[in-house]
Amino acid sequence: TLQAAEQLVKEGFTVLPYINADPLLAKHLEDCGCATVMPLGSPIGSGQGLNNAANIALIIENAGVPVVVDAGIGVPSEAAQALEMGADAVLVNSAIALAGDPPAMAEAMAQAVIAGRTAFQSGRLPRRAEASPSSPTTGRIQS
Asked: Is 43 contained in some domain?
């Protein structure tokens, strides 16, 4: 994949490589001039979701090009998850094409992507090992 991408970039092509969720390969592809990297969430058409979420997160964190999560997304919540992680986009086909109601599934995916991107831009609550109450302690009714 890397050698082919290098050759195609040298010949003036815009290269959008579809790859396993390999952070090192993704960085090499970016460095050779690819316009994006497209890691698989899971095997194409499988509907298994983001089986490689940790690797995808590393790719996103270190990418200087757009990251498009492709393959394996089966339901809108998985598309939202990819965008919440910071992916720039998802490419979804089978989940829509093979749904019982493809237009409704397409609409659900669109809403999920908007929700996921908005959540990412808003900033998530930091994960903590312990509970941390956030309810105000002033202004409460006293008995």
From this structure: yes
Residue 129 CB burial class (10 angstroms; 0-12, 13-18, ≥19): exposed
Looking at the predicted structure, is the pLDDT value of residue 133 above 70? yes
β-partners of residue 108 are: none
Tell me how far CA of residue 93 lies from CA of 36, 58, 70, 84, 138, in angstroms.
19, 24, 9, 20, 51
Q: Which two tokens stand for residue 80?
A: 């939202």
- Write down the pTM of the prediction: 0.81
Which segments of 51-108 are extended strands (E)? 68-70, 89-91
pLDDT for the residue numbered 143: 66
Which DSSP state fits 76? Answer: H
**Cβ partners under 8 Å of residue 108, min gap 6:** 76
Residue ranges making up the domain that contains 93: 2-121
CATH assignment of the domain containing 47: 3.20.20.70
Alpha-carbon span 56 to 59, nearest angstrom:
5
Amino acid in the structure at residue 81: Q
